[in-house]
């Protein structure tokens, strides 16, 4: 178990749950960073007495600085720099990367360079730069332990069996609009899209779960985390969200991890690994379940998943373009400037318009990310 961890994105859904796990297990939190929820940041400063705190939003950063003036806490600069300082904060053993989107990329690399364990909750980092991030982690000997529930399940199921993997079975509930036609989803509102039937999550990932883009991002995340080829990963729709994912081994054995849908469990495991500590989640009562169901995904009705699987096969900068265009499109959808069905159309158009790079450098990935966001802004905002 780690004794101390930094939390990036400490006021978001995963950040708050990570803070609760740290409090319960007595894990020290020497640095926290978030975007603009100053009220909660101040509360977390009281709870954890960190040495460092930062807010990315310039206005929130000023407010934070005023509130903490003379209190003996270092307040970092706004923007990416504030996150990067937190990521490499001296003396921490681990960094929980719980920011949403590509903004997590550089801070994650900084934490790897500093030799920290990465409790990875920011899947966009691996989606856009998985090859670079995983290579860097190998070179620096940094451990990457997934927080995403599916990847935690795969990680746990594969423990000690890496060489025996035949296939990854990546499960997903199918989201709130499973089985809906394109005509039916045309009028979906942000309020409907963020209400996930099983999991309580932030707005961006909830929309991604509804469009199934989240499963597509997870498909690419799994390829990088477990060195798997696209053909070695099968997506299964599993509406009950009890089997969090599974692995099929070379002899045909299937090993799965099950539990109630509660992110506290994978968060805790990323911090206690390779040990386990008593958890606070509700216990799973298999006899109370009406049944467990598994289906192949209907890719016709899940165009974002199909698009992401296609990008996974294309590789290069395609996943980065897709992920950035999706982030921008979901932002427009949440502010009611883009229809639900246009999320797919706009991401697909961005992929068609931005030049393909087979082996992008980090700078080229960041450039592709900017181009994709610009494309969405110019054509859809
Ligand atoms: Mg997940």
Describe the 3D structure.
The structure is a single chain. This protein is an alpha/beta fold and 381 residues long. β10 (243-249) and β11 (254-258) form a beta hairpin. The chain has 16 helices and eleven strands. The chain has helices at residues 13-25, 38-48, 58-67, 79-87, 105-113, 123-140, 149-158, 182-185, 190-193, 203-211, 213-225, 264-272, 303-314, 318-334, 342-353, 362-380, and strands spanning 5-8, 31-34, 52-55, 74-75, 94-97, 117-120, 144-146, 165-172, 233-237, 243-249, 254-258. It folds into three domains: 5-147, Rossmann fold (3-Layer(aba) Sandwich), CATH 3.40.50; 150-260 and 284-312, no CATH class; 315-381, Orthogonal Bundle (Rna Polymerase Sigma Factor, Chain: A). The strands form two sheets. Strands 4-3-2-1-5-6-7 form a seven-stranded parallel sheet, with helices on both faces. The chain has a four-stranded mixed sheet with strand order 9-8-10-11, with helices on one face. The protein binds magnesium ion. Residues 148-150, 218 line the site of magnesium ion.
- How confident overall, as mean pLDDT? 96
Q: Using DSSP, what is the number of strands?
A: 11
Return the structural class: alpha/beta
- Taken together, the total number of domains comes to 3
Q: Per CATH, which architecture of the largest domain?
A: 3-Layer(aba) Sandwich
**Strand sequence of the main sheet, in spatial order?**
4-3-2-1-5-6-7
Major beta sheet, specifics?
7 strands, parallel
Do you know the CATH topology of the largest domain? Rossmann fold
H-E string: EHEHEHEHEHEHEHEHHHHEEEHHHHH
Amino- and carboxy-terminal Cα gap: 46 Å
């Amino acid at each position: 178990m780690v004794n101390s961890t930094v939390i990036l994105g400490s006021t978001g859904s995963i950040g708050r749950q990570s803070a609760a796990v740290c409090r319960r297990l007595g894990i020290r939190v020497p640095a926290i960073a978030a975007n603009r929820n100053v009220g909660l940041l101040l509360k977390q400063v009281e709870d954890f007495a960190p040495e460092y705190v930062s807010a990315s939003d310039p206005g929130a950063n000023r407010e934070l600085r005023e509130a903490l003036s003379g209190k003996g806490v270092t307040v970092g600069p706004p923007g990416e720099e504030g996150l990067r300082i937190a990521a490499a904060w001296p003396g921490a053993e681990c960094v929980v990367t719980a920011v949403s989107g590509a903004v997590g990329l550089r801070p994650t690399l900084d934490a790897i360079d500093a030799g920290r364990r990465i409790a990875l909750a920011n899947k966009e980092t691996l989606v856009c730069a998985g090859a670079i991030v995983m290579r860097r982690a190998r070179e620096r000997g940094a451990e990457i332990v997934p927080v995403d529930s599916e990847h935690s399940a795969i990680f746990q199921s594969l423990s000690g069996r890496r060489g025996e993997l035949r296939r990854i079975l990546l499960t997903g509930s199918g989201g709130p609009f499973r089985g809906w036609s394109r005509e039916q989803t045309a009028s979906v509102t942000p309020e409907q899209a963020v209400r996930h039937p099983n999991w309580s999550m932030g707005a961006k990932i909830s929309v991604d779960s509804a469009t199934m883009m989240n499963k597509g991002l997870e498909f690419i995340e799994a390829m990088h985390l477990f060195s798997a080829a696209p053909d070695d990963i099968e997506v299964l729709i599993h509406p009950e969200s009890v089997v969090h994912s599974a692995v099929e081994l070379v002899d045909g054995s299937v090993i799965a991890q099950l539990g109630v849908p509660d992110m506290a469990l994978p968060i805790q495991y990323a911090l206690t690994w390779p040990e386990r500590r008593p958890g606070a989640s509700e216990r799973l009562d298999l006899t109370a379940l009406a049944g467990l169901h598994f289906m192949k995904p209907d890719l016709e009705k899940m165009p974002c998943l199909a698009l992401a699987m296609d990008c996974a096969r294309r590789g290069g900068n395609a996943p980065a373009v897709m992920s950035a265009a999706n982030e921008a499109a979901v932002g427009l959808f949440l502010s009611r400037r883009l229809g639900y069905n246009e999320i797919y159309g706009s991401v697909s158009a961005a992929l068609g318009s931005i030049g393909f790079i087979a082996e992008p450098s980090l700078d080229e990935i960041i450039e592709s990310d900017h181009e994709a966001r610009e494309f969405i802004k110019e054509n859809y905002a």
